[in-house]
Amino acid sequence: MKPDSIIYIISICIFFASCSNKNITKEKSKEPDNLIIITREQFETDKMLFGEPQKLEFYDIVKCNGNIVAQPSGVARISTSVPGLVKKINCTTGQKVNKGQILFELSGNEFIDLQKDFAESASQMKRIRSEYERVKSLFYEKVGTEKEFILAESEFKAATAKYSALKLKIKFIGLDDTKIEEGKFSEFFSIISPLNGYISQINVTLGQYTDQQINLAEIYDVSRLQLRVSVFEKDLDKIKENQKITFTLLSNAGKSYSATVKSIGKNVNSDSKTILCFADIDDMKSVNFVNNAYVEAMIITNNDSVTAVPEESIIKSGGNNYLLAFVKNENNNYFLKRVKVDVGQIKNGYVEILNQLDITKIITKGGYNIKVE
Questions:
Q1: CA 324/CA 333 separation, integer angstroms
Q2: With contact defined as beta carbons under 8 Å apart, do 327 and 36 qualify?
Q3: CA-to-CA distance for 97 and 175, rounded, in angstroms?
Q4: Pairing mode, strands 293-310 and 54-70
Q5: What is the tens place of the pLDDT at every residue in 163-180?
Q6: Helical spans, DSSP H, in the chain
Q7: Would you state the pLDDT for residue 188?
Q8: Is 2.40.420.20 the CATH classification of the domain at 31-56+306-369?
């Protein structure tokens, strides 16, 4: 073969080889060179999982302790306005009572003397009123003297004051003043419940002498319970009215309840360095709350809706944070791309993502062995 022919054939081969290499290069360039490829076997061995970024509520909280207590209008400490002996006890500790229900019956000399004094005052009142009207009429007719009129008027006003005061006392202890004016005395008087509630304690026994200084019983209206929590002074600037509180009872720590802050104290306890705050319990009917029950509470001082991913999703490399986003699944291989992210606060195993994400599927677990370099 001639040398010119050999050279020609070699040139043709080189040309086709060059074209072939260009095609191969062109095919490879279709695949981005920054993708990370893991096999299905590696995915399953490392127990990897796919998931999605989520919208979650991130809270700032202040932890505190407290009690469930009755509102001032929801507690009554029962005492008597007239001293006497306890004749009958019509209630027991823990019993539910209604407003107006008779709890105790009392009797004694003071009570009898009160009725006697009122009956005498009522009788005298009739005589003094009659005398006053007579003197008054004579004075206006220019028959009686002014001195007599002033004296009669003074006696009438004094008698009226005494009669009115005794009548109020009689009515206050629930007696019929008209019967007592007629001389029909009662042997005892009743102490009634001022509200609906439960008897928490009884402090007297049958036959015991009692007066205004002794609490016969205490009643709590469980429909008027509230939450009282102690907040440390350093956290006070974070607390505001209408913030939500979640709390648990010592008797049932697995279930949480909610309340709303209604008032913030203005006095710091010198020993505990705390301030008392009060909150309305949101759903009083859901649980049979009891007075003075101990609670552990968290006041939610701030809440934001943020994009977040599981903490294990974040891959750290070179001082940066990355997510591994799913691209495709081909030939039993998963193709992933790294996405640089800025992270914020961490709450309950989730990390806040600060920048906008345009990915929907990421490695959420088991990606710690994947190199993103």
A1: 15
A2: no
A3: 21
A4: antiparallel
A5: 999 999 999 998 999 999
A6: 3-29, 40-45, 109-140, 146-172, 177-181
A7: 92
A8: yes
pLDDT over 80 (residue 48): yes
Kindly report the CATH class assigned to 61-72+222-304.
mainly beta
- Report CA Rg, the chain: 44
Q: Say what the pLDDT of residue 29 is.
A: 32
Q: Note the pTM of the prediction, 2 decimals.
A: 0.64
All structural domains of the chain with their residue ranges: 31-56+306-369, 61-72+222-304, 81-214
Side chain identity at residue 215, one-letter code: N
CA diameter of the chain: 175
Token pair recorded at residue 258: 């909610």
CA distances to 149, 151, 156, 370 from 142, rounded to whole Å, are: 11, 16, 20, 120
Q: Which amino acid is at 298?
A: M
Nearest alpha-carbon partner for 91 in 204, 207, 172: 204
Reading the block at residue 7, the tokens are 């050279």
**C-alpha dist (Å) from residue 59 to 267, 300, 302:** 27, 6, 6
CA distance 39 to 20: 30
Rounded-to-integer distance, Cα 222 and Cα 288, Å: 8
HSE-CB at 295 with a 13 A cutoff on CA atoms is: 31
Q: What are phi and psi of 364, to 5 degrees?
A: -105, -15
Amino acid at site 177? D
Helix (H/G/I), strand (E/B), else coil: 80: coil
Type and span of the H or E element at 336 = strand 333-341
The DSSP bridge partners found for residue 362 are: 51, 325
Where would I find the beta strands (DSSP E) of 141-251?
189-192, 197-202, 209-210, 217-220, 225-232, 244-249
What is the rounded CA–CA span in Å between residue 255 and residue 283? Answer: 14
Residues 6+ apart with CB under 8 A from 64: 229, 230, 231, 232, 235, 274, 297, 298, 299
Q: What is the token pair recorded at 13?
A: 């081969």
Give rounded-to-5 percent helix, strand, coil for the chain: 30, 40, 30
**CA dihedral for 231, 232, 236, 237, sign (positive or negative):** negative
Question: Is it the case that residue 34 has pLDDT exceeding 80?
Answer: no
Cα→Cα distances 66→37, 249, 294, Å: 55, 10, 6
The residues near 18 (Cβ < 8 Å, ≥ 6 apart) are: none
